[in-house]
């Protein structure tokens, strides 16, 4: 396909997923800083890296999960992150046959399983996923592994996984990143280190192995935002507390972290010229309702409802429809003559 056409699609995708629908007033500077550092559309950069390395039967790591009210209970977590992880897992598996491996806090594994299966992927043990990839009859499976909160345990888990399974890429979606002092904070500066899985060690493993390490976030405190840590410290309130330290290969900044994952998946659909590699509005509703049914909350409102970051279900579905239409129309150039000379 014409690379200029894909680039045009990707530019429009970036615009959609960075629309500040929730009026949080942070995505515009985050995106500008990230784009200045990386040059090209962010979702396209991530999709290209993933498609270069993802392969049939090979694991791709996707870390997510944000324990949202740990002062009340570490079992309370938000819908932003797990839903995007499931959508990206679906896209990567469908496009390449890769085995998605979701990393999330142990207490959130049941909720993640529910969301993942709403996306159409059966949650299985890791070895069973490898067997499913070899099976003649199609079995579309993904694994979910507990992400340790203790730094030493997380480091050992990462080292063992890379040694035994040789993953091809790592993606973090709405996952807190360690700052230079080894702490994780909310965007308001509250310390959440003791409740948060330490995905940094898996990203470090990916970087050390020379494989794609991608971060997706919406507030400035997520793993991957180390790429623009200097700007975050200088310009964002509490940024000196929460700016992550680790620098990824690609940073995708989005208005909602789920949307950043959707943008990557939409770019995968464009690059593979197969719109079915991107999920539908119906699947979006299924995933958000599954998230609510599993007890995940809207992190902004605190309600158990099929929404994310304060943006209700109809708007979430509309974003998915916009992305699908953008890819579909972009893959069919020449429908109308350009008015430009």
TrEMBL record:
Residue ranges occupied by any D-glutamate cyclase-like C-terminal domain in the UniProt entry: 40-324
Pfam families xref list: GLUCM-like_C
Organism: Chelativorans composti
Entry-linked Gene3D superfamilies: TON_0340
Origin superkingdom: Bacteria
Descriptive protein name: Glutamate cyclase domain-containing protein
């Amino acid at each position: 396909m014409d690379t200029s056409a894909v680039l045009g699609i990707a530019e429009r995708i970036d615009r959609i997923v960075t629309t500040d629908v929730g009026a949080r007033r942070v995505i515009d500077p985050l995106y500008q800083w990230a784009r200045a550092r990386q040059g090209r559309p962010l979702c396209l950069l991530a999709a290209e890296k993933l498609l270069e390395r993802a392969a049939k039967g090979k694991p791709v790591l996707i870390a997510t999960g944000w324990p949202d009210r740990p002062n009340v209970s570490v079992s309370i977590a938000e819908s932003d992150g797990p839903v995007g992880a499931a959508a990206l897992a679906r896209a990567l598996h469908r496009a390449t046959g890769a085995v998605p491996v979701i990393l999330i806090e142990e207490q959130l594994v049941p909720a993640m399983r529910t969301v993942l299966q709403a996306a159409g992927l059966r949650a299985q043990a890791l070895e069973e996923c490898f067997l499913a990839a070899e099976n003649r009859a199609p079995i579309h499976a993904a694994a979910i592994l507990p992400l340790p909160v203790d730094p030493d345990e997380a480091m050992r888990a990462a080292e063992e996984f890379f040694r035994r399974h040789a993953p091809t890429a790592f993606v973090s979606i709405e996952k807190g990143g360690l700052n230079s002092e080894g702490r994780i904070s909310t965007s308001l500066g509250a310390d959440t280190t003791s409740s948060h899985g330490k995905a940094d060690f898996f990203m470090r493993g990916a970087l050390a192995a020379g494989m794609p390490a991608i971060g997706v976030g919406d507030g400035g405190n997520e793993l991957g935002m180390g790429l623009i840590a200097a700007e975050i410290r200088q310009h964002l309130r509490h940024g000196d507390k929460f700016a992550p330290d680790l620098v990824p290969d690609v940073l995708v900044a989005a208005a909602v972290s789920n949307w950043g994952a959707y943008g990557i998946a939409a770019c995968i659909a464009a690059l593979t010229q197969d719109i079915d590699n991107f999920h539908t509005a119906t699947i979006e509703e299924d995933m958000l309702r599954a998230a609510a049914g599993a007890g995940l909350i809207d992190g902004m409102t605190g309600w158990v409802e099929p929404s994310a970051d304060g943006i209700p279900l109809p708007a979430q579905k509309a974003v998915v429809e916009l992305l699908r239409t953008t890819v579909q129309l972009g893959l069919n150039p020449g429908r109308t003559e350009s008015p430009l000379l």
